Amino acid sequence: MVNAAEFVTVNRRALLEWGLGAFASRLFAAGPGPGTVVDAAVHFYDPSRPQGVPWPNRDSPILYKRSYPDRYLAAIRPFTVHGVIAIEASPWLEDNLWLLNVADRNPLIRAVVGNIPPGHPDFSAALGRFSKHPLFRGIRINAALAPRALAQPELLADLKRLAGKDLSLDILVSSPSSFAQIAELAARLPDLRIVVGHLPLDSEKDALRAFAQHNRVFAKASGVVRRIGDRVPTEASYYKPQLDELWDVFGPDRVLYASNWPASDLIALYPVVYQVILDYVSTKAKEEIEKFFWKNSLTAYKWKDHA
Description:
By secondary structure, the protein is α/β, with parallel strands linked by helices. The chain has one domain (about 5-300): Metal-dependent hydrolases (TIM Barrel). The chain has eleven helices and eight strands.
């Protein structure tokens, strides 16, 4: 776990390495940015609620603070984001409703990806209830659930219900060891849109291709910037090999921009994360840049603007 002192040190070093002049130079060097940006992985929560929150933990001062759209908009400066996909990390069923209520009050939120554990006795009822809300566009699971879903028909049936309601499935990965199981899950559920998050990981192209061959599987670039020792590389060239691999395997139509804010604060401030990614994609064709920053998320989640 990163403590607050380490966070301040690492991020201060990254910003000092840039300097204001260097930061401005990189903004201009990157060329024109995307016309629209939809951040496909943002978490909102409020530890000050009477019932608290199951995540993040109180012992994580970087994350354990009220996180609403206003704080997000302050964190992203000087950049502009036009919409976000809000991901519910809490396993408490009623927190899906809490997040939908936040979304109702904030047009920044284009879609909500809920948290309804497959296999929960109330899964079908909860999915039916929350999916009536036009902003509810899917659920997220951990990759560790994939082998269980493949082995247990009742879990697979719950995931199949998502496809029946034209909803998506986010899968949170932390190791390439889950790629083959995700590929099998995609094969068993060919009508389900699957969004694999926290990519890229250190893996071989063949491992990625295992599930990338399914054209309804998308890659969410929400794990790009990393800490190496006590340093956070801020050069896009450092991350280019892995990003090239992701782009080559999935193509320009199935890779999504995502920050994973505020969990990304454990690694670097939002401007650092965004600038690294912008530097990388700025060499792409204009239409590919637009796809990456918002059009692909529209395909994956079928989000809608607030009425």
